[in-house]
Specification:
With about 190 residues, the chain is an alpha/beta fold. The chain is about 40% helix and about 20% strand. Helix 3 links the parallel strand 4 and strand 5.
Length: about 190
C-alpha cells in the first residue's frame, strides 16, 4: 500500500549503521525526511546523497531530520555511507520498504537520468560497487513526516534517480511554513 499526504504512520524505531537509535516520527524535529534508496554501492544513489550532503547544514537548519534507508546490510553500508552526515539505516530484509510500499522495477536502471547519474556517481566517488544486495531494480521514495507521524508529502520514484533534491525538499518545508504563517495571520485578523 502506497502512502499519500494525510496518512499517518505508526512509530518505528530503527538503528543506524553506527548503532544510534532513531525514531520516526521524531519529536525533536519539525520534519523527518525519510528517504528510501537502493543498495549501498549504488552509484546513482550515492551521487544523489553526495549532492544532498553538500547541503546538510541548510537542511538541518530548516528543521529536517534526514533518515536514509538502504536495502543493504550494515557491513556493506559502512563501506559507502560511514561518513555521511545523515542517519543511515540498513534494511536488508526490506521490511521498511514493504511497510511504506516502496517497490522495484526494471525501469529503475534503464531511464536516461538514472544512467547519467550512475556514471556521474562513479566519477564523483571513484568507487565501483561489487555487490548489489537485494538487486539493482529497487526504486527510491521520499516522505516528509511531521512529529505526530502525519505524512505531509510523499513521492515514489519511477527510476533510480527520481528523488527529491535539496531544493525540492527545502521548498516543501518552506511552503508548509508559509502556509502555517498565513493561517496564523488569518486567524489573528478574524479574531479582532
Amino acid at each position: 500500500m502506497k502512502l499519500k499526504p494525510g496518512d499517518k504512520i505508526s512509530p518505528i524505531a530503527v538503528t543506524t549503521i553506527h548503532g544510534t537509535a532513531v525514531s520516526v516520527p521524531d519529536k525533536g524535529f519539525p520534519y523527518v525526511h525519510l528517504l528510501f534508496l537502493r543498495f549501498a554501492g549504488c552509484p546513482v544513489c550515492n551521487f544523489h546523497v553526495h549532492n544532498l550532503s553538500k547541503r546538510a547544514t541548510e537542511i538541518k537548519e530548516a528543521g529536517i531530520h534526514q533518515v536514509l534507508v538502504w536495502h543493504s546490510s550494515r557491513d556493506e553500508m559502512l563501506k559507502y555511507q560511514a561518513q555521511l552526515p545523515f542517519d543511515c539505516i540498513p534494511d536488508p530484509n526490506k521490511w521498511l520498504y514493504r511497510e511504506f510500499g516502496v517497490e522495484a522495477s526494471l525501469q529503475a536502471v534503464l531511464h536516461p537520468a538514472a544512467l547519467s547519474a550512475g556514471f556521474r556517481g562513479i566519477l564523483a566517488t571513484r568507487k565501483l560497487y561489487k555487490k548489489a544486495e537485494n538487486g539493482i531494480f529497487g526504486l527510491p521514495a521520499d516522505f516528509l513526516i511531521d512529529p505526530n507521524g502525519k505524512v505531509l508529502a510523499a513521492h515514489y520514484g519511477s527510476h533510480a534517480y527520481d528523488n527529491w533534491d535539496a531544493d525540492q525538499l527545502l521548498r516543501l518545508v518552506s511552503e508548509r511554513e508559509n502556509s502555517a504563517a498565513e493561517l496564523e495571520r488569518e486567524v489573528a485578523r478574524t479574531a479582532r
